[in-house]
Write a structure and sequence with these properties.
binds adenosine-5'-triphosphate; 2 domains; 20 strands; binds magnesium ion; Rossmann fold
Length: 349
């Protein structure tokens, strides 16, 4: 029995499709799980149903073995932080953090002690008496985090908490949030649009698309073995290609011919989709390797992405900048990749 369990959750707002469409998830105690997915894919709605701010149209939620469907939000013992950290502007930092405890009727002395502890954890002890507007965005976000943690929630829900911050502050806060998670061990669900953030922070990632869960996996597994073309294209940069398994482990690309690929033994024959990461393709020395026509060059500083075609098949290649310094649009290059780099979507390898 998992700690937090979502069973066939649905939310119908009356739109063309369900905002959340039959989502089932099992989250373990202490896990750090990230919801990743495009805008409108149902991440916030799922979080709102866990928090109790939205009622599911159907389905159930259980926490620590107990159905929480009838339990109102303030009795679920779930901490929530939203993107636009709504701190109370007229309250000091310490009073903001202590607010959930005052609501719960915790004695004054204990409130003071717990607020002091949380402010130490988010490293804002020196700001206890400050008004929120005197704080930077990152500091305000840490106050919101302390306020969501001060009542020792069973589950912490963070909905794009770093969306408003610049890159450096974001990275700093990512480290803070992970550290706090390690120190307190609270089961955490984190929502983000940012793939790198999802990859670096999570024990597991849940990929949402159109209200449904496409895949749940550890970051590297998700990256290496996407189960669906959507996940293959959404998580990291990828080439998702139509191919044919002609039998005997031979993969062909239409208009190109056979290509190097190590296929899983259970690979079905017939049409399939394969994924080939741009960075796993390199320039080949021989003249019999597949020919790639360069149609565009995008320079990222440390690496270069070549946009072009392998025969008639659109393909992206990422090369280290040093290997691409002399390339020009229109050039024809010979390319290769390790057979292991080809992933047949939907198989275990
Ligand atoms: N209160 C509401 N009333 C009607 N429709 C809603 C409501 N809230 C969300 N929706 C719809 O439900 C779908 C899922 O929205 P949701 O906010 O869960 O997406 P999201 O994955 O959090 O997106 P984003 O990344 O943009 O925050 C969307 O189509 C949205 O328009
Ligand atoms: Mg959202």
């Amino acid at each position: 029995m998992s700690y937090l369990s979502l069973q066939n959750l649905r939310k119908d707002y009356g739109g063309k499709i369900f905002a959340v469409d039959d989502v089932s998830l099992a989250i373990e105690k202490g896990e750090f799980v990230t919801f990743l997915g495009p805008s409108g894919s149902g991440k916030t709605t799922t979080l709102m149903m866990i928090a109790g701010f939205e009622q599911p149209t159907s389905g159930h939620i259980a926490l620590a073995g107990r159905a929480i469907d009838p339990v109102p939000p303030h009795k679920r013992n779930i901490g929530v932080v939203f993107q636009n950290y709504a701190l109370f502007p007229h309250m000091s930092v310490a009073r903001n953090v202590g607010f959930p405890l005052r609501m719960r009727g915790v004695p004054k002395a204990e409130i003071a002690a717990r607020v002091a502890r949380l402010l130490a954890i988010v490293e804002l002890g020196a700001f206890a008496d400050a008004e929120p507007r005197r704080l930077s965005g990152g500091q305000q976000q840490r106050v919101a985090l302390a306020r969501a943690l001060v009542f020792e929630p069973d589950v912490l829900l963070l909905d794009e908490p770093l969306g408003a911050l610049d890159k450096n502050l974001r990275e700093q806060m990512q480290i803070e949030i992970r550290r706090i998670h390690r120190e307190l061990g609270v089961t955490t669900i984190y929502v983000t649009h940012d793939q790198t953030e999802a990859m670096t922070m999570s024990d597991r990632i849940v990929v949402f698309n159109g209200g449904k869960v496409e895949q749940v996996d550890a970051p590297l597994a998700l990256y290496r073995r996407p189960n669906t073309p959507f996940v293959a294209g959404f998580v990291g940069d990828n080439n998702v290609l139509d191919a044919t398994h002609a039998g005997g482990g031979r993969i062909e690309l239409p208009g190109v011919g056979p290509i190097a690929a190590a296929l899983p033994s259970d690979c079905p024959t017939g049409p399939l989709k394969i994924a080939l990461r741009p960075e796993s393709i390199r320039l080949a020395a021989g003249s019999d390797a597949p020919a790639f026509t360069v149609q565009g060059i995008v320079n990222y500083g440390d690496s270069v992405v070549l946009v072009g075609a392998l025969g008639t098949v659109p393909l992206k290649i990422r090369l280290p900048a040093v290997a691409a310094s002399n390339l020009t649009v229109g050039q024809i290059l010979r390319i290769e990749w390790s057979p292991d780099a080809v992933h047949v979507i939907g198989t275990a390898r």
